[in-house]
Amino acid sequence: MIQIVLLDIEGTTTPIDFVTKTLFPYARSRYLSFLQEHSTSPEIREITDRLWLSYQDEPLSCWPEKDDLAGAAAYLRYLSDQDRKLTALKDLQGKIWRTGYEDSSLKGEMYDDVIPALQQWKQQGRKIAIYSSGSVAAQQLIFGCSNVGDLRPYISNYFDTQIGAKLDVSSYQKIAEHLGVTPQEIHFYSDNPREIEAAQKAGCVVTEIRREQQDTLLT
Ligand SMILES: CSCCC(=O)C(=O)COP(=O)(O)O
Ligand SMILES: [Mg+2]
Fold it and tell me: Which Gene3D superfamilies match (predicted)?
């Protein structure tokens, strides 16, 4: 018996274009100004420390010294242009998007079937959780400030890559453990076949969503 519906965001609840053509460019054009504005913030320093560590493994020459903010911003642009799912990049993007959601220049875009599907799962007594590469803060913003209103009351848990990568089987086992259920009691929805494969190997029930083929979350 399914207890938990676990949802991916990009390509599942939200058009890929909203992430790649609205959210990513919004952050991309603000990496440097954001780092400059928050250069004394310990929270932002901690994120740039993690970025610097990751940069040590990259064969690039854009970021010569740790305190060079222009270099850090260039590395962030490089990572986001490749859609890398690095946790430090995702943490920083979430912080940058907050301003856009707060001044209403950003509104999280949801497919039309999202609200009916959330209502259906609630009626069936299921809990709804999110698992996205976007940070938990970014997830709460996209659902809290969406084009169809504040959807957070429907959602009981949020998971990001702090629990593990979405392609790792163990991430789905850890999510089940965290929620106090077995993987077999989780139904995971995603547009990414490799995520679907990992969740299935963990024992979850899975549905691959192919929006280009008019798939819907409703059953
Ligand atoms: C939280 S909205 C931004 C989503 C994001 O940054 C991303 O990389 C999409 O990843 P997902 O796991 O939702 O496909
Ligand atoms: Mg996706």
Answer: 1.10.720.60, HAD superfamily/HAD-like (3.40.50.1000)
Chain centroid to CA 82: how far?
15
Residues with CB under 5 A from ligand 2 (ion): 8, 10-11, 191-192
Instruction: Output the residue whose Cα is nearest ligand 1's atom 14.
Output: 10
Going by C-alpha positions, the residue among 144, 146, 214, 166 that lies closest to residue 7 is 166
Q: pLDDT (tens digit, 0 to 9) for every residue of the chain, 219 residues total? A: 999 999 999 999 999 999 999 999 999 999 999 999 999 999 999 999 999 999 999 879 999 999 999 999 999 999 999 999 999 999 999 999 999 999 999 999 999 999 999 999 999 999 999 999 999 999 999 999 999 999 999 999 999 999 999 999 999 999 999 999 999 999 999 999 999 999 999 999 999 999 999 999 998
CA 9 to CA 6: how far, in whole Å?
10
Instruction: Tell which residue, 40, 190, 160, has the closest CA to residue 90.
Output: 160
CB atoms within 10 A of CB 10: 21
| Nearest protein Cα to ligand 1, atom 6 | 134
pTM: 0.97
Which own/partner pairs from 18-21 qualify as long-range (CB within 8 Å, at least 24 positions apart)?
Answer: 18/108, 18/109, 20/83
